[in-house]
Structures are given as C-alpha cells and as structure tokens.
Design brief:
Blueprint: E1 3-4, E2 8-9, E3 15-22, H1 28-36, E4 53-59, E5 62-68, H2 80-92, E6 96-102, H3 106-119, E7 123-128, H4 130-135, H5 142-149, E8 153-155, H6 164-176, H7 190-206, H8 213-223, H9 237-256, H10 261-283, H11 293-302, H12 307-351, H13 356-394, H14 397-410, H15 417-426, H16 428-434, H17 441-450, H18 460-471, H19 477-504, H20 526-561, E9 563-564, E10 567-568, H21 569-583, H22 588-596, H23 604-613, H24 624-633, H25 638-649, H26 655-665, H27 668-697
Parallel strand pairs: 3-5, 3-6, 6-7, 7-8
Antiparallel strand pairs: 1-2, 4-5, 9-10
Helix pairs in contact: 3-10, 5-10, 7-8, 7-9, 8-9, 12-13, 12-19, 13-20, 14-15, 15-16, 16-26, 17-19, 17-27, 18-19, 18-25, 21-22, 22-23, 25-27, 26-27
Length: 698
C-alpha cells in the first residue's frame, strides 16, 4: 500500500476512500483486517492502533482504500488521537466514514457517531461484537437505531466475518449517493444555537465542499482559530479573516452571557452525551453494561490491591515455566538439525575447494552464529508470544496496566506506560513504537527512555541459561521460571525508579489522567491467535535477528581469527575491558560479549562461548552443559552469575531499539540518553552488588 508522508493515502485512479473511526477497543482494527485481508495488530485492549494504517480491497469492479484511524472517544481534538482522526476526516474527505461501535454498549460510541454526523452525512454505523452482546442478552435494535440516526446501521461480528458483506454493500451504496443530507442530531442550549446561526453565513462561504458549515461553526466557536482545520482549505483570505473575526465576536458574546471557553466545552459535551443517551434509551438499552457476576469476581481477584499483584507475578511465572519446559525440547532438536546442516555445508565447501579462510568466515562465523540465534531464540518466542497474545485477547493485559497505574502516576508518568512495558517483554523496539498511545509528549518520552529496563525476548535465553546453570541448581525449570519472574520484577521496579528520576529532573511535569477501559473477558480464538502470533510476532522478530546475526557472526569470527601484536583482535578487546568488568563482578570476556551483542542481544552467549573456548570459532550449537563447566573453570560462581544477570537486565538497548528510539524522538540527544540510562544503572547495580559481596565475604 503506497502511503505518502504524514500518514495520507496515495489514491490511484478510480479508487475511493473509506475511513474507519471508532472508540478504542470496539474491534475497529479487526473490521479493517477482515475488509482488507491485512494483519494489523489486534487485541483485547485499547490503543493498539497508534498511527493511520491503510489497506485495499476490490469489490464489484470497484477499488477501495480503507484507512484505519487511531481509536478516539470524540472529535473534539483533546488528544493526539482525536486530532489525527478529525484532521484526516476533514482534510482527506473520505467517500464514506464507517464509525464502529460496540454492540455491548452502543451508547459509549454514540457520541462519536453524532459528532461525525455533524461533520458529514456520508456515515455508516457499524455495530460490532454482536456475538458478545447476544451472550449477555443485550441485542440492540439496529432498525430503531437507523431510524433515530437517519443513516445506515449494520451489525457485524468481525472476528467471524458475519455481516461484513452487507457492510461492504452499504458502504458502496452510501458512496454512490451524491445527495448530501443535513443531519443535525444534536441541539444545543439557545445561546449556543444563536451563536451558530450567526456564524453560518460566513461558515458557508469558507467551508470546503463535502463538509458541514454547521460543524465548522461549532468547532471554531468551541476552540477558536487554533481549533480550525488547515486554513488553506478555508476559502479566500478575506472570507477567512471575516469568518474568524465573527467567531471572536460570538465567543465574546457568549462570555458576556456567562459561558466562557471551558464552560462551552462542558455544554457541548453534555449535549452530545444527552443526545446519545436519548437515542440509545429504547434502541440499545444497556443492562449493567454487560458486567456479569463472573466478571465482578474475576476483577476483584485480578485487580485487587494485594491479589492483583500476586496473580500477576504468578501468571508471569507460569507463562515462563511453560516457555522453559517447551523451549528445552525444541532447542535441542534445532541444535541437532543445525549441527548436521553445518557439517553437510562444510563437506560441500571442502568438495568444491573453498579456501579455509572463507569457509571459516561463512560457516564457522556467519552460519554458526545464525544457527545459535535461531536455536536459542525461536523456541521460547514460539511459546511465549502465543501465550502472551492469548492473555491479551482474554482481556488480562489491561488489568496488568490497572495494577501498575498507581505506581506510574506516583512516579509522575502515565499509566499507559504499563501497556508499552508489557509490549517490551516481546520486543523493546515494539514497546518503544507502542509509546505512541501516550498523548503527552513528556510522558511519551519517559516511556521511550525506560522501556529497555524490561527484558525483551532476545535477553531471555542468556538469563535462562545463567539461572539454570548457577542459581536453580537441581530444582528444575519451575525454580528457573520463578527466579526469572523475580528478575523481571526487578526490571519493573527499575522502570518506576528511573521514571521518577526523569520526571523529577529533566522531564518535570504533572502526570496526565486517562481513561483505562477494562474490556470484557473474551474466550480467545486459539488457532487464529497462534497463527497470528507466529506470523506477526515470532517470525518477524526472528527474521530481523537473523539478518543482524549473519553479518555480526562474520565480524566476530574475524575478530577472533585476525592476529595483531601477539594476540587476536578479540584478545586485545577483552584485555582492555577486563578492569572495568572486574569492577562490575564479571570479566573482560563477558563485557566484550555484551559489546559485540549490540546488533542483537541473542549474540551475547555465543560470543562468550567462542571467546572462552579459545578456538577462534563458536562451540557447536547446543553444548550448554560443557559451557557451564567452561564458565566455572574461568572463575564464574553464583555472584558472577547475579552480576551478569543484572547487567543483562540493565544495559544499552540493541541496535534495532536504538534506531527505533531515534525514529520516534527524532533526536540524537534522546537516543543517546536512552542508550546511557540503562547502562549507567547496570554499572551502578553490578558494582554495588560486587562491593556488597566482597564486604560480606571479607
């Protein structure tokens, strides 16, 4: 899909544009995926769509472009998502706007429908989640809703595809209807209506075709010139200036009547909410919003002050235990397969007379590192990501954010940071990108800079191996999972502490409030979730790691095999870093492994193995027990293991995450700070722990 700068679609000849708008967590992105065949990330929590997404589909010989807009509660532009949605609708003037509502609680999304109808009449209301509403005995009267609104209303269940063909037919019908209706579903108090009437003649002169002059008058009356769309779209300069002059006159008149800008905003919101309640009172009555006794019991358990945290940690430990148990078998199988494949490639290279240097560079270097990355990284990802997605689809992830919200607010950060932190468990780069859901630039920056304190999937293999070899002992994978959950909890605590440090120093400010909706509990679609998770998360992250691992493996092999001044380049690097490593409770070899692991965290273990083995090439994939014996022979003990675990938890982000930080902030300064913050914290924690151990031991 071709997209121009700023998230604007490039339409080909004959294509027509559909905009999908809607409240967060009503299944808007699921509707988008079903219509276009794309795989935009969906899940049972609000705020997944953080930028405009575009897709195409063909129907009845016509070509359609669908824009999935960020979820928003209104078009009042009080947040970045609302402003983005409103500006897109006004500036791009889609042929049809589909407003997606939830059948479980249509009233919640009806305010957005009414505000969209004030902007244009080319609206289709899509009532999604009919299956959930039916289970709760809450089926809205769609015919009555259509009668009250005056625009088509279509019921769908996007996850199963029910009703989508009807929706496509209705969209085509509305797009082909050249008549512009004059929908005025909301009536405001008399002083406001009088001001709108006074503005209408001037608004009609500057309002672009396809846009309602009444909406333009209403929005500028509420927000002044700052709230107006791009002025280049608003008629001639003279007409524009006359219009804005009349706007200021009307605003002053309202102030004289006791209605200032803040009061006017409250009046407009209250009027829209009242109209929404009136429309839904008989067409879609809410029965306690579908909040069942089962949901109440689960929420008391999952969001309780004490039980919420206990369940959260226990759930994390269980997920990690399942991941460890399954990954052990899969990793062993992949290791055997890659070793056999490498031996076959070595034989083939020898048979064609490939030079030894090239053979070592390509096979013992690039291929073996790539094999290590796949064998060590794929199994836990293939298990962890689907389990994480199942919890997400079931509705548990927002409960985790609810439990963490108080801590983030006390640190001066935004509670939405808890959601981005959860994304970081899979991939820190994805977590940094997810920070777009935070409206405040200051709080978004705090979330971006601290996301790397939560270990990503690439760091899990190193942590799991060290915990299994030095800390879990004979207690097995359950103990390893509990210990790993404990280290992740340390990462969460560090995230909170560093967030507090930032908001108390260079990023001062008040924490903003936001509405965190706790969605209904849903039964996940297991097969679809597994397929989507493997395709969209596991293999995407793995592919990126492999692309980095291949050249990195070649470079590492060169460092280990090129001699200079009585030793290899790798020997010189490890010797240079050894004093710093000793201060931190490790050695130069381990610190070098972290440095060379900058392209991908999965490389840390393979590089350490290669350097300790003194063979100039990696050990064969899968020889973990011999690696444990090698570490012990090189002076490792439980204290060394803890120091390495702490530094694994807190050190510079990988190259992909650093690039993502730069893309999101547009600043080398903030990217450098995102690199240095976890590194300095890791140095302080490791050095402090080493000093404490030496004092106790001495």
């Amino acid at each position: 899909m071709a997209v121009s700068g700023g998230g604007v679609p490039v339409l080909r000849t004959g294509e027509r544009l559909i905009a999908l708008a809607g409240h967060p967590n009503v299944g808007k992105s699921t509707v988008f995926n079903a219509m276009t065949g794309m795989r935009q990330h969906t899940g049972n929590w609000a705020g997944k769509t953080v930028a405009n997404a575009f897709g195409r589909y063909d129907r009845n010989g016509r070509h359609w472009v669908v824009a999935d807009l960020p979820g928003c509660c209104s078009l009042a532009a009080s947040s970045a998502e609302e402003k983005a949605a409103r500006d897109f609708i006004f500036n791009e003037r889609p042929d049809v706007i589909v407003v997606v509502c939830s059948a479980v609680n249509p009233e919640r999304g009806m305010a957005l429908v009414l505000q969209t109808l004030e902007l244009t009449s080319r609206v289709v209301v899509c009532v999604n989640l009919l299956d959930e509403a039916a289970k709760k005995g809450m089926e809205p009267d769609l015919g009555r809703l259509e009668e009250r609104l005056g625009v088509p209303v279509v019921g769908v269940t996007a996850r199963s595809g029910r009703g989508l063909n009807i929706l496509a037919d209705v969209i085509e019908s509305v797009a082909n209807d050249t008549r512009d209706g004059d929908h005025v579903p909301v009536r405001y108090p008399m002083p406001v209506e009088a001001a709108i009437a006074r503005l209408l003649p001037d608004a009609e002169r500057v309002c672009p075709m396809g846009c309602s002059p009444r909406w333009l008058a209403l929005r500028t009356l509420d927000e002044g010139r700052e709230g107006a769309p791009e002025e280049r779209l608003l008629g001639s300069r003279m007409d524009r200036e006359n219009f804005f002059r009349r706007v200021e006159e009307c605003r002053r008149t309202l102030e004289q009547q006791g209605i200032d800008s803040e009061a006017l905003g409250d009046i407009l919101s209250a009027s829209v909410s009242e109209a929404a309640r009136g429309i839904c009172s008989d067409a879609a009555p809410a029965s306690e919003l579908g909040y069942s006794r089962r949901d109440r019991i689960l929420d008391r358990l999952l969001t309780g002050r004490v039980t919420g945290w206990l369940v959260m940690l226990m759930m994390l430990a269980v997920v990690l235990w399942i991941t460890l148990e399954g990954a052990n078998y899969l990793s062993a199988g992949l290791s055997v397969g890659f070793n056999k494949l490498e031996h076959w490639l070595q034989d083939a290279a020898l048979s064609v007379g490939m030079p030894a240097f090239l053979r070592g560079l390509l096979l013992s270097g690039a291929f073996r590192v790539m094999g290590w990355v796949v064998a060590v990284m794929l199994p836990p990802m293939a298990i962890f990501f689907p389990l994480f997605t199942l919890l997400e689809d079931a509705g548990y992830l927002p409960r985790v954010a609810f439990n963490l919200d108080g801590g983030f607010r006390r640190c001066g950060a935004c509670g939405k940071q808890a959601l981005t932190m959860c994304m970081g468990l899979g991939c820190n780069a994805a977590g940094v990108t997810g920070c777009r859901i935070i409206s405040s630039p200051r709080e978004r920056l705090v979330a971006v800079l601290t996301n790397s304190f939560v270990p990503c999937n690439g760091r899990f293999p190193t942590m799991l191996a060290i915990i299994s070899l030095f800390l879990a002992g004979s207690f097995g994978t359950l103990c390893s999972a509990v210990l790993l959950a404990g280290f992740i909890a340390v990462g969460i605590v560090m995230t909170l502490l560093v967030s507090r440090l930032l908001t108390a120093t260079i990023l001062r400010g008040q924490s903003s409030s936001f509405t965190l909706e706790l969605p209904s509990y849903r039964r996940p679609q297991v097969c679809r979730t597994l397929a989507r998770s493997l395709a969209d998360r596991t293999f995407r992250v793995l592919g990126r790691a492999v692309m980095v691992a291949l050249p990195a493996g070649a470079v590492i092999w060169l460092l280990a095999n090129v001699n200079a001044c009585g030793g290899t380049l790798l020997d010189h690097v490890t010797g240079f870093l050894d004093p710093l490593g000793r201060i931190m409770g490790m050695d130069g070899v381990t610190l070098t492994a972290f440095v060379l692991g900058f392209p991908a965290n999965e490389l840390v273990l393979p590089v350490a193995m290669m350097t300790y083995s003194a063979q100039g090439e990696l050990m064969e994939i899968g020889s973990m027990q011999s690696f444990g014996a090698m570490l012990t022979a090189n002076g490792w003990d439980w204290a060394t293991a803890v120091s390495v675990l702490l530094f694994t938890l807190m050190h510079w982000p990988c190259s992909t995450t650093c690039i993502t930080i730069y893309k999101e902030t547009g600043s080398i300064k903030w990217t450098l700070l995102g690199f240095l913050l976890p590194t300095l914290c890791g140095f302080v924690c490791c050095s402090g722990f080493t000093l404490l151990v030496s004092l106790i031991g001495g």
